[in-house]
Input
Amino acid sequence: MRPAPTPTLPRGAGEGDATRRFLFLQGPISPFFVEVAAGLRARGHAVHRINLCLGDRMFWRGPGAEDYRGRFEDWPRFVAAFLDRHAITDLVLLGEQRPYHRVAIAAARARGVAVTVTDFGYLRPDWIVLEPEGMGAESRFPRDPEAIRALAARCPEPELAPRFADDFARQAVWDVAFHLASLLPLGFPHYRSWLAGHPVPAYLGTAVRLLLRRRDTRRAAARLASLRAAGGGPLYCFAMQMENDYSVRAYSDFRDNDSAIALAVGSFARHAPPAAQLLVKVHPLDPGLKRWGRRVARIAAAAGVAARVHLLDGALPMQPVLEACRGIVTINSTVGVAAIAAGCATLPLGRALYDVPGLAWQDGLDRFWRDAPPPDPALAAAFIRAIAGCLHVRGVYYARPGLDAAVAATVARLDAGDVGQPPAGGVGQTPAGSTGQPPAGSTGQPPACGAARRVGAA
Output
């Protein structure tokens, strides 16, 4: 859990060069990559695309696309030759740990090709990551507090109030279409999906959970309200993640949520104050393939704390949980960023961007329950400011006008070759999609836990 040394953020290849050549691999299941590619072409850059499956082909429009129909074992030779043949300068993708992408990134790094990764933001709900090399544990963002403060001093104060709504229904429809199409061998007989399991059971389980969501959310809200009203000892929360999340699979030593929950509950039973209570919050998009109520109850009973561990299912927003809790434990969820901004003691059990002295607890799980202080508020404010300015653009993937804002800001960043750097002009330069002013009533400092700023959390 100690932060890895990451001294600087590299600039993209060919800053200001109007003859750069971009290769797009798999991205968000939306028009985002297609429209970013069109914007780059309009600025004089060459754009290429490799489709790996039928879903990729469905969601790509425009010239420069080539289908890869070979076996995965032959992919390293193919992508290396493609990079050389087209003199690619920039590789753009979502999901740096997907098997095809890991191979492509290795080939790109060997050739000095700039790698840019995108995904849902560390900040939520309407921010998108645009980051060099990789996210999370792969991020080149510094883990040294003084380096973070120095970056923040070059970034404008972000406006964290939500500006753009996304469209979950559209996201779900496009996701289903992509993955079901990619199950078909048409044109891509050897494609290997990055998913941990077959998508159909996950979709069926998600459908059932959506039908029960209102009921489960009401129950979770009532349980939280009851615990808060009862007073007594402090509340802590273990925030679960999706088990097919590569942040869990690649950036932690846990194979699933069960093992992480068991570790946290066991430590809580032995070391937390006797009156303390532990909430276990299910990810709102968990497919329901595991009966978490029963699993968590068994884990808690085995540890002798059945009456002190409580499941929160459904889609209860994270903010009221942060307001109620003294501390948050997670594998490496972006909930940790929201917890730090809210002033809650935070402990990632895996490797995370925010595992920084002064932000996240550094002295182990057993001491966390009694000794972990809130994060340093000035450092937390600097961290939020720096990641907003250096690692994000404002917008969403699925609904306009947020999609338009994200595309425009991404094109501008890629064209300028300054991904991962403070915005051009530094302090006083308004980031794309932002007014550059803090929301009304903001001091620029994270408030104490109980008055959380909305910087994201599922």
About this structure: The chain has 15 helices and twelve strands. The mean pLDDT is 91. The radius of gyration is 22 Å.
